[in-house]
Amino acid sequence: MNPSQFLGIELNPRAAAIADLVIWIGYLQWHFRRFGDIPPVEPVLREYKNIECRDAVLAYDGKEPDVDPKTGKVRSRWGGRMMKHAVTGEMVPDPINQIPIYRYINPRSAEWQEADYVVSNPPFIGNAWIRERLGDGYAETLRKAYKDVPDTVDFVMYWWHKAAELARANTITRFGFITTNSIHQVRQRKVIEFHQNQKNPICLIFAIADHPWTDEGAAVRIAMTVGQADSSNIVRVAQLGTVVQEVEAGTPEDSADRVEIYWESSGQILSNLRSGADITKTRTLQSNQNLVSRGVMPGSDGFQVQPSEIGCVEPDLLRTYFNGRDLLHTSRGHLIIDTAGLDENILRLTYPKTYQWLLERVKPERQTNNDPKLCREWWLYRRANTILRAALDGLDRFIVTAETAKHRVFVFLDSMVLPDNRLVSITLSDSYFLGILSSKLHICWALASGGTLEDRPVYQKSICFDRFPFPDPTPDRRQQIRELGDRLDSHRKRVQAQHPEVTITAMYNLLEKIRAGQELSESDRAFNNKALVSTLKQIHDELDAAVFEAYGWDDLKAEGQIKSEVDEIILERLVALNAERAEEERNGLIRWLRPDYQAPGEIQTQQIIEGIAEVEVESAIAPVEQQKLPKAFKDQLAAVRDLLRTQGGEWTVEQIAAQFKGATRQKQTILTCLESLEALGIIAKHGEDSSDRWYLAELQKAS
Hints:
37% of the residues lie in helices and 18% in strands. It is α+β, with helices and mostly antiparallel strands. Among the domains are: 55-71 and 99-275, no CATH class; 627-702, Arc Repressor Mutant, subunit A.
């Protein structure tokens, strides 16, 4: 073995030279450890030129300024220089400071040297920073060159994708990467899922989803993954590591030595870097659709107004503005100008003070933006979120949670509050839903499915909410959860009203300590007496028990069970319930969470949510001749229901089938309809086996 076997690609010439030197140092250290004081073969240092100085993901023949064919001018963007505004005195972008955008000639995926193994620690550049750090032209060219890689991923995933392609083609034996720990978030893991679902897929044989790291002196969180072709027989049992202890020491190296990792063997590591229940295979449920959205994205701090500045703008356009810090820490008391739906002329004529405020504070920023729409409509938000506004219409409150936070907490906000883009807004006003979302079951689901950013869990609505199967409780159990949800929200707000310095984060930090059985310090006890965290724990415990009962999973309430085992059972059952709900929806049974908004005017053949919608008994004309049995399941349900409503009496499966053309050959379909209608409480039956007779449940109530 010698340094010629270690190949590399590095864009920075200085870093490439250092890498070459480090390989030789490592080689010589290995030599003397193995051979003692026997000197290495002369010459000791040789020039193998095995570290190539070039781009590792994008190759091109050259680059030149990108000329806009419409204007004939070189495309450019703001270069980052600021200047003081002559009127406000605030620092604003200097519109004169422009840098060119380049066009890359003959761009393509970079070729890597022939090797057996690939190991890399690529640059930690988040998706939102690729344009800023590498340039617009590079970002656009890179995304065009990698058509199988989604535009939403971080820079490191282009390395991961390329290595996975080589492994699937059996060009390399194995690959391993150190990446940001966001690799297992939904938008990042699409790359992993892509390669796990191909004809010759890759499999992960080693993973640590969240590990401390130091990047240029800053503490960050990283993930480690090792993959190989699934057809490879080298390693069949995967190793999944979980960091269970971190200790801060004098140096990053000493801290790394004290990290403790719990290892488990797994038959399969999933794309979210977990084993066990495969949440990634769950389906989006129609019942949960169109209810969750991120808040607004103003796109400029110039829209915000301090309480002392209210007189500078018309109050009609001001709204309270909340972000994650306002929610979980101390509210800043900020107001924001909301110009949604106003054109420039109406704003200037009707709200002249607000117009001037935005002219001085927002327009200078927008002038340097490359988005022509933002430049043209400078007085409007980057993202006004008309979907959220429509969903909030008619509600007095709604549920929010911080997208990225240490603790997953759900809180009611008044519908007049405008949520920030980093708040996930759930447009449900019933405290029953706040109770379900705040329960151990949903928190377990959200933590397992949403991924993390650094060391903080991320709530991604597309999987954390849209795929979550809500329970189907009795009216009494629903009311119990509703009352507990109200108690939870009221308790926290009452404590904060009496003690404004108490934050949600501080409450849940102490709650975490109490749950873990840690001994409380004097300051902890004093805070507990003020914030009433023991009472908060009691509410959560009662809520968890009620939600377990709502799902019919009373066996998971018993004390003394190992938390990790209970969590895995919860996930397995929720994944199975998601599949059950998805199958129901394919058959036309949709358990809408907010039917008046999600499905207005639709005939409700599914179970009606108490307090949200009522079933009206529809009058129908008795059929005078055989009708055709509809093809859609929900239409079949309606046809059978209407038959029993109009004809009355008791019916066997055979008698009902005889009322429809060709249905005698579909007795099983009729029976499925009857059983579904019975489960929904619309009809009832008596008798046993083949002598079962079905009748309208309302007749039973009347008798």
